[in-house]
Amino acid sequence: MLSENIRALRKSKGLSQEELAVKLNVVRQTVSKWEQGLSVPDADMLISISKVFEASVGTLLGETVAGEEPGELRAISEKLEVINLQLARRKSARREAVLWLLISICAAVLICFAVLAVLDSPYKGWDWSDPELAVAGTAYHAFEWVFIRLAPLIFTGSAAGIAVMLVRKRD
Question: 17 lies in which domain range?
């Protein structure tokens, strides 16, 4: 909601992300992250944004506020806390998905190695005078040749990624 409100107010004022960033003394990427919902401005920045847009902080956060209330700052901080928790959950879910993707890659590489070891290059005994077998054997051999050279790099990279993610997860 905050991200949509910032984008809508910026566009209604006819400002680009770069122009808004200059007015707020931040980089354009910061404004972009706010509008994508990847981060949220802190309380001081919300006040600065509200001044630039000539709107209340409550309007930015999606509320219609009749006037300045003494508890408004507390309400703003509670809303920011909820937004930060949502962003943290989203980030955690992404990390979890990447971790499982890396684990799946490692498992797939190991399974392919096992299958290739069990098959033990069956094309060596094929009748190469048959054109279809010759093409299939060449394709199989090409796959095997490329896989054997790339798989250790892919496996090592994925294993390193898993280790890094598990270390970050502990912290």
Answer: 2-68
Does residue 73 sit within a domain? no
Contact yes or no for 113/148 (Cβ under 8 A): no
pTM of the model: 0.53
Q: Is residue 19 a part of any domain in this protein?
A: yes
pLDDT of 134 over the 50 cut: yes
Q: Does the pLDDT of residue 17 top 60, yes or no? A: yes
* Residue 139 is assigned to a structural domain of this protein: yes
pLDDT at 63: 62
**Residues 6 or more apart in contact with residue 27 via CB below 8 angstroms:** 21
Exposure of 98 in the CB half-sphere (CA atoms within 13 A): 17
CA within 13 Å, CB half, 163: 6
pLDDT digits 0-9 by tens, 98-119: 999 999 999 999 999 999 888 8
Would you call 166 helix, strand, or coil by DSSP? helix
In a domain? residue 83: no
